[in-house]
Amino acid sequence: MFLRRIAVLLFPLTRLVQPVSAQEFQFWDFTTGALGWNPNGSISHFEVTEEGLDFDSVAEDPFLIGPTVFYTDSLFYRVTLRMKSNADSQGKFFFGLPFAEERSRSFEVIPDSDWHEYSVFVTGLSPQSALRLDPCDFTGHVTLAWIRVDRVPNLALDNGTLSLRLDLKGGGAISYLSPSGSNRSLINIHDRGRYVQQSYYAGRPIDRRDEGQSSTWSPWSWNPIQVGDTYGHVAPILESWVRDGTAYVKCRPLLWDMNNEMAECHMEMWVRLEGRSVHVKNRLTCFRTDNRWALTQNHQELPAVYTIGNLHHLVTFMGTAPWNSGSVTEIDNQGPPWEYWVGTEQWAGLLDDQGFGVGVYNPNAEQFVGGFYGSPGGLAHDDSTGYIAPIRTEMLDKNTVYEYEYDLIVGTVHDIREFVYSKQGEIYTGGPTSTPTHTPTITPTITPTPTFTATHTPTFTNTPTATETPSPTSTPTWTPVSPDLVPDARVDALDVLEFLRRWRHDRTPSRVDLSGNGMVDGLDPLSIGNYWMQVTTPSGEAFKKG
Predict the structure, then answer these.
(1) Which of 389, 344, 345, 351 is nearest to 368 (CA)?
(2) How many CA atoms lie within 13 A of 192 on its CB side?
(3) Would you say 240 and 260 are in contact if contact means Cβ atoms under 8 Å apart?
C-alpha cells in the first residue's frame, strides 16, 4: 500500500454517471459468506454478518485477497464495491498476479461509517487473476457488503455514415474511424503515441533520467498524453458513458517520457457524430504541485491525429485568398522533422491514392505541423503513418483549464472543404479558462451528405461546390510574451506568427522557434528529429511517437 505514485482513480458512484452497457461478470455477496476472500494479519475479528464481512484493521496495510478467476485479457472491467468504514480515506484495488503497483487503482474512501459504493476501471487481467482489496491504510472498523466485476465494452458510435470507437484501454482516445459498414479503420494505433488524442506541453525540457525518464526522450517538457507513455503503460479511465448520441470519457493521463508516472491533470472528451464528421470537445484540467517547469510558451497539438499509411497524401489550403474555392496544395514531407505551415482555411487532410481519407478542422488554429513517416501503405497497426496537428502557442500554468473543439471529416477534398465552408461563422471553444465550466451540451448540426465515393484526384485540385461566402476571419489580438518567461529567446514567437499570418508564406521552416521557448536550433519538441526516433521498451517492443 505504501508505494510511490498513488493516483486517486476511483470515486463514490453517487458522483458518477452510469457507464455504458456493462455486463455483470462476477458477484460476491458477503452476506452469504467469505466466498474465498481471506484477510492478512493486519485484520482481526473477521466474520460474516447479515450486513456482510465485518472486521477491524488493527495494523498498517490491511488487505483481503479474493479467489482466482478466469478473466479475458482483451476485455475492460469495472470493479464496484459497497463498504462502510470509520478508518481513513485511502483505499486501493490490486489486480492480476503477482500483485504490483503498476496493476493497482487507488480510491478515496468516505470514512463516515455510512454505506458508500465505489467503482474502478481495470484492464490487462491475465486469464488466472485475483483481486486484492486494501480498504484503508491504518486502523479502524470496516464492513464490506459486496464486490461486483462487470465487463465494459469500448465506447462506440455509428450514425449509419460513420463508425467510431474510443479505446478504454488507451485513455479513451479515438482508436477507430471508418465509413459505416467498413472494417478498415483510418486511424493508426501502432503505439501509445499514435491514435487521435490529446497532447499538451508546458515548461522547458528537463533531465529526469534519475527518476525513470526514458533516455531517448531526455530532456523533455511536461507532456501529458491521453493514451499512455513511451514505456507502453496506458492512462486509466475515471469515467465513461454514452448518452443521447454523445460519448464521454475522462482519464488520468501519463507523462509521455516517464515510466508509468501519472500527470497531475485530468483529460475529458465529448464526441458526437454529425453526418460524415466527428465533432469533439476536449478539456485539460491541471492541478500540478511541482516546481520543476518554468512558465513558457509552448506548442499545443489540438489535437494530434495519426492516420494509416495508406493515407500518404498531405493536403491543405495555403493561399492568400481563403474561402474562395482556390486550389489546394499537397505537402511533400517525409518526417521527422515535420513540416510547419499556415493553413489559411484552418484544415488539413491525409488522403489515399484515390483521394479519400480524413481531414481535421480547428477554426481557432491556422498554424499546422505534420507530414508522413515511413513507406506509403499500411493499416492501423503498421509502422507507417500520416500525422497532422493544428497548433496554437499557449502557456499552460499549474492550474490551467484548457478547452478546445475540432472536427474530423471523412471523405474527399471536396467533402472536407464543403464541411469546413459550412461551419464558417460558428463559434468553437478554444483556449484556457480560469475555472472548469459546466458539462457541455453538444447539439448536432446534421449536414446532408452524399454517398461515399472514392474519386481519383491525383493533382488534388478538387474545389468545393459550396457557393456561400463565409464571413471573414477576425484578426487575432496578440498578447506580448514577457521577456522574463523566455529570457534567452532569439525569436519572438508571436512576431513570427503574425508575420506568417500577414504574408501567408507557403512554407514555414520546421526549425523556427514558433513556440517562443528559445529553442531555435531544433530543440522544439514538435520539430526535433530525436522526438520521433524509435524507442525500445524494456520488454523489447518498439514504440514510436511519430
Answers:
(1) 389
(2) 30
(3) no
Q: What's the rounded Cα separation, in Å, for the pair 402 and 400?
A: 6
Q: Is the predicted pLDDT of residue 475 greater than 60, yes or no?
A: no
Q: Computed from CA positions of residues 396, 398, 400, 405, in that sequence, does the dihedral angle turn out positive or negative?
A: positive
118, 124 contact by CB (below 8 A) = no
Q: Provide the whole-model pTM.
A: 0.67
CA 122 to chain centre: 17
Tally DSSP H helices, then E strands, for the chain: 2, 38
In sequence order, what DSSP letters do the residues of 294-316 get, joined into one string? ----EEEEEEEEEEETT--EEEE
List Cβ neighbours of 197 (8 Å cut-off, separation of 6 or more).
Answer: 171, 173, 174, 225, 226, 227, 303, 304
Q: Cα–Cα distance between 538 and 542 in angstroms, integer?
A: 9
Report d(CA 178, CA 347) in Å as an integer: 19
Rounded Cα–Cα distance for residues 193 and 532 (Å): 10
DSSP result, 376-439? S---TTSS-EEEEEEEEEE---TT-EEEEEEEEEEE-HHHHHHHHHHTTT----EEEESS--PP
pLDDT band at 488 (very low <50, low <70, confident <90, very high): very low
SS3 for 77?
strand
The dihedral built from the CA positions of residue 182, 188, 189 and 195, taken in this order, carries a sign that is negative
**pLDDT by residue (tens digit) across 114-161?**
999 998 878 767 778 899 999 999 999 999 999 999 887 778 999 999
Contact (Cβ atoms closer than 8 angstroms) between residue 130 and residue 69: yes
Cα separations (Å) of 168 from 117, 173, 251, 272, 500?
Answer: 22, 8, 9, 17, 40
d(CA 38, CA 474): 66
Q: What's the rounded Cα separation, in Å, for the pair 114 and 231?
A: 41
Read off the C-alpha cell for 265: 491533470
